[in-house]
Amino acid sequence: MNKAAMLGIFFRSLTIQISFNFRTMQGLGFAFSMLPVMFARKDSEHREKEVFLLRHLQMFNTNPYLVSAVVGSVVRIEEDGDGVREAEDLKKALMGPYAAIGDSFFWGALCLFSSAGAVLVAVSGSFYAPLVFLLLFSPAQVMVRVGGFIHGICSGRGGFNYIRSLDLPREAARLRYGALFILSIVVAALAVSFAGHGRLFPQHVGFIIYSAIFLISFVGARREISSEKILYGIAVMCMVFSI
Q1: Which helix or strand (DSSP H or E) is residue 31 part of?
Q2: Residue ranges of domains in the chain
Q3: What distance in Å separates the CA atoms of residue 27 and residue 32, rounded to the nearest whole number?
Q4: Which one has a higher pLDDT value, 229 or 165?
Q5: 3-state helix, strand, coil in the chain (%, to 5)
Q6: What digits encode the pLDDT tens for the residues 100-125?
């Protein structure tokens, strides 16, 4: 296939969630992404095209930001003519691990980090908070989508090596702790602001208390206390001080 067809497949893969349903989940969107491959087979018979579509209309579900990597690998397998079983086995083998890795990184870490950064900007009184969220969240998911698709097209079954090289679980842990530090700064900034208006403590006392919250969060992270426990601890302290 030419570059235009490849671009068409990639852009189609970006819309895979639009046709999400409870029967095949992302299956319909996956088949839609693969249509250019079928159209490229001009000499194939009607029955062969029907079998091709039915094969890719099967149930499929993974993280939407990693689906392009699967699409790229499957396209390469289809183009190489490695057989029906190869493409089906690859989809089944990758969709589970990619769902777990992608959900943990994008929803459980990157989204949290981006939201914390946006909240910090919003607290400062700026209207650019939504833009900050997009600038923190979008580059990573675009990089993973494009890189995964390109490596899938080039390597076929070996396309998973690109996702593995990113080590997303390690990066997810870093982002979670980064989000905790940002939220600690937000709490301290709000407390000092309230203290200046006489709502909580005298200004110097409020500064000391909420600086301590930040330091406790840092020490907890260094001692490998889970980010969830640190986050809930910060929430409890904030509720106590707000009474």
Answers
A1: helix 27-33
A2: 3-166, 171-242
A3: 9
A4: 165
A5: 80, 0, 20
A6: 999 999 998 999 899 989 988 888 77
